[in-house]
Design a protein that fits this description.
Two copies of one chain form a homodimer. Chain A is of the alpha+beta class and about 325 residues long. Chain A contains ten helices and nine strands. Chain A has three domains: about 120 residues, Nucleoside Triphosphate Pyrophosphohydrolase (Alpha-Beta Complex); about 90 residues, no CATH class; about 70 residues, Arc Repressor Mutant, subunit A (Orthogonal Bundle). In chain A, helix 4 packs antiparallel against helix 5 and helix 5 runs antiparallel to helix 6. The N and C termini of chain A lie far apart (about 45 Å). The structure holds a DNA duplex (30 and 30 nucleotides). Chains A, B: Pfam families: WHD_NrtR.
DNA sequence: CTCCATTATACTCATCTGGAGCATAATGGA
DNA sequence: TCCATTATGCTCCAGATGAGTATAATGGAG
């Protein structure tokens, strides 16, 4: 009844509202051996997914069902990423509309049974330009930068070249700009726009032009993966989500290496510890391990209590205290 | 073809994937007279919305079409909010599944023609407990706090009461905890869970128990509005989106009052200016106005260039510089 | 057994940033 | 002319952050 009130007052609505196919799709992340990995299925590079059905209690539970069926891998933390619809990028004419509701899930790779259909692959296989842990990869300055600048130079409209150059510089940190690890999606979309990734050339006949290194994925899955990486890189900075990827106990260096794997860049060791400890995110277990070589390291565990205690603001407004 | 690869490897898929009705729904925000307003339609408290159709080029353009048809109001900035599916909250049995893809849009109230079907209403009409510009509203301590604590006390399971009390304290800033203006959705959901808002009692027969002040909305629109407010309150802190709500030129105090209207709390005047100016978000027009009383104020305009120049990180990791 | 490479952990120091408040400058109206 | 009011500039202080130095435990090489 209220349903009606909500829809009536528009002109083109003449009963021809039509239904749409809805897919649930997951970016499942784990960090294995300090490599950040995404879960894929089949031989193709495909993210786990499946249609949203009547039987599903909710979007999340539907997603859980699909992923666990397809990969035999249980999911822990889940959050919604984004809802995509314009699949025209892939080049298939939309006879019927498909919508993809994407999710980010964090787990650990407990090697259970049934791992045949599941495959972890480092996300840097798909985005080799994103790993700056050993400094900017040569690939960036040797291949990406010149290719992107050629694309900028090929702009037809007045001023469009300069605008492209600026977008490129901001996204990739060229010139004296800083590298911003969060701009994963912007970088991928720039490369797509410049025709430098395989997905951009699908449906265009035989491959034309030079492609940048990095595995392609099915459909628009690489874009969805980029969205997930960007979200995670952003989120680790203001929410204690890294711990979803850690074993129950760990050393501070293990924690640091995991963060570095995700962020794709190195952090200052002493300051990292200070940050973690002053926020009281962890507590000592009392045990130590010398598996790491050198002086034995204390083992810590996540203080689950912080989840409830805090809500983590992130002020950037000069609020008044009183 | 790859489509197939993506869907084949799951067990329950036996051709019975079914289609779903997809609605696009908008939280359209403007600040009128320092009151943050949402756009509603009809007599009911309903957000503008309409079904996603084959004719729509993309989700966003579909949304634009609906909102502009329903309200004759052009939209500027748009971003996706969240995709909702579990309408069971409203109490209607799902014969068919409905999915709502919600968007946040920012505009200014240029009073054009055809405003009959449009209606701006302060979002504090719906969430009176969210306006802390004049300090915590009496409503919070006089009504909400006792009612929520009664609910916490009514918990059956062991420990559940304490857990509820903690959630309440964090969400509303009780005890010596700080008020966090971003937790709009958590607060609404707590009140919903506690049965203190009208929506929670729909389909439950005649109203039972005491309701908190604040207008209800159709369906789950109030939850969607809460999501939009939360997103906006968070976003103004790290992206220059306020300017979408400002006239072309403005004084710094006008800008400040607008931010305060959105955040629901006061900011420190001098520090606010410092923040704005050091980030070079605005530039002087060279003119002044004395409409404000007292010493005439300089007029500023937004430096649109910053959109391109920066990408705004938000580091919270102790990165190494080299 | 000693030395050394390696990792862990504790401090120090300079700088930056954000929260607060004081002081001075222009207005219009009483 | 005085005053209320708003605008705007500047100082101060405390806590957070970036960076580096110093010391503590290990295991393994010689």
């Amino acid at each position: 009844m209220q349903e009606k009130a909500a829809r009536n007052s528009n002109p083109t609505e003449a009963g021809r509202a039509h239904d749409v196919h809805v897919d649930l799709i997951a970016v499942v992340v784990a960090v294995n051996g300090y490599e950040p990995c995404a879960l894929t299925i089949g031989e193709a590079d495909t993210l786990p997914s499946g249609p949203f059905e009547l039987g599903h209690r909710s979007l999340q539970s539907g997603l859980r069902t699909w992923v666990e069926h397809q990969t035999r891998h249980p999911l822990g933390y889940i959050e919604q990423l984004y809802t995509f619809a314009d699949r025209d990028r892939i080049g298939d004419e939309p006879q019927q509309r498909v919508i993809s509701i994407s999710y980010l899930a964090l787990t650990r790779d407990e090697q259970g049974p049934g791992s045949s259909s599941r495959r972890w692959r480092s996300w840097y296989d798909y985005f080799p330009w994103e790993d700056h842990r050993a400094g900017a990869p040569p690939l960036v300055t040797d291949l990406l930068e010149p290719a992107l600048h050629r694309w900028a130079a090929s702009a037809k409209l007045e001023g469009a070249g300069a605008e492209r150059r600026q977008r490129i510089a901001v996204a990739f940190g060229f010139g004296d700009r800083p590298w911003n690890e969060e701009l994963v999606l912007q970088r991928y979309e720039l490369l797509y726009e410049a025709g430098l990734v395989e997905e951009a050339q699908r449906g265009q006949g035989p491959a034309s032009g030079q492609l940048m290194p990095g595995r392609a994925m099915a459909l628009d899955h690489r874009r969805i993966l980029a969205t997930g990486i960007a979200r995670l890189r952003s989120k680790i900075k203001y929410r204690p989500v890294v711990f979803e990827l850690m074993p129950p106990t760990f050393t501070l260096l293990q924690l640091q290496r995991t963060v570095e794997a995700l962020a794709g860049r190195l952090v200052h060791k002493q300051n990292f510890r200070r940050l973690i400890e002053q926020q009281e995110l962890v507590e000592e277990t009392g045990e130590t391990t010398s598996d790491t070589g050198g002086r034995p390291a204390k083992l810590f565990r996540f203080r689950h209590a912080v989840q409830a205690e805090r809500a983590a603001a992130g002020t950037k407004l000069p609020l008044t205290r009183s």
